[in-house]
TrEMBL record:
Keywords carried by this UniProt record: Cell inner membrane, Cell membrane, Hydrolase, Membrane, Protease, Transmembrane, Transmembrane helix
One term of GO molecular function: serine-type endopeptidase activity
The protein, known as: Rhomboid family intramembrane serine protease
Lineage of source species: Bacteria, Pseudomonadati, Pseudomonadota, Alphaproteobacteria, Rhodobacterales
Membrane topology, as annotated: Multi-pass membrane protein
Organism, scientific name: Ponticoccus litoralis
Residue ranges constituting the Peptidase S54 rhomboid domain according to the UniProt record: 61-208
Length: 257
């Protein structure tokens, strides 16, 4: 289940969202060659990734910020940039360019601190923008719970796009992070679930003053929980079922590493 778009494009160009996406992609491309040398990669991570044990020793604090612009693979950065693209523009439209930039950085730092608290002596380098983007999702949930988001549902050979309210999609996502956080040792490698949880909660908290300033529940009643823009209409709401083609030639079996 993947979100692929929302139905409420922003009312102005989201310069900060695009700049964050371009920066992340540029850094990823610029550091691609480091993967050819484990020693060089670890030295780079020791300087710029978030390593909780380093912070507990009193250094490596720059990693709270620099780690937000590093990614561990194509799927990692592709997923993060997709979520930022979907949820960032409306929040930037509501907060303003500067306000959104500061909000994004604050959520990322908050997510990093929660991760450090959850695994203070871990020496596993942590990278990725997902903590900050989780904050964007938390802010989106508070301001636009009724916005429609299209999710791509994949069931073996059936692909279907289903529109759901943002609150449902984000609640399922947050529940998955809680489940992962409770069932996974925080000092292990893999997904930093508590960073996601911390970023999401930080985004909710930081958005509360703006939500109250707009009227709180009255703001929801006035906007029906949707961004203040015309709803986009898409011609197709599903992808047809694909029949499996018959084999006409023998293809050798391979093993992926």
């Amino acid at each position: 289940m993947f979100p692929i778009r929302d139905h409420n494009p922003s009312g102005r160009v989201p310069f900060v969202t695009y700049a964050l996406m371009l920066t992340n992609i540029a850094v990823f491309i610029g550091t691609w060659d480091l993967g050819q040398s484990p020693r060089a990669l670890y030295a780079f991570y020791a300087e710029f990734a978030l390593i909780p044990a380093f912070l507990m020793e009193g250094y490596g604090w720059q990693g709270l910020v620099t780690s937000m612009f590093l990614h561990g693979g194509l799927l990692h950065i592709a997923g993060n940039m997709l979520f930022l693209f979907i949820f960032g523009d409306n929040l930037e439209d509501e907060m303003g360019h500067l306000g959104f930039a500061l909000f994004y950085l604050a959520c990322g730092i908050g997510a990093g601190l929660i991760h450090v608290i959850s695994a203070p002596y871990s020496t596993v380098p942590t990278v990725g923008a997902s903590g900050a983007i989780a904050g964007v999702m938390g802010g989106y949930l508070l301001l636009f719970p009724g916005a429609r988001v299209d999710i791509l549902l994949i069931l073996i050979v059936i692909f279907r796009i289903i529109p759901v309210p943002a609150w449902l999609m984000l609640a399922i996502w947050f529940g998955m992070q809680l489940l992962g956080g409770w069932s996974t040792a925080p000092d292990e490698g893999g997904v930093a679930y508590w960073a996601h949880i911390g970023g999401f909660v930080a985004g909710l908290i930081l958005t509360v003053p703006g939500w109250l300033k707009r009227g709180g529940p009255a703001f929801w009643n006035r906007t029906r929980g949707q961004p203040p823009h015309p709803v986009a209409r898409y011609d197709r709401s599903h992808i047809p079922r694909i029949r499996r083609a018959r084999r006409t030639t023998q293809v050798p079996r391979i093993r992926r590493r």
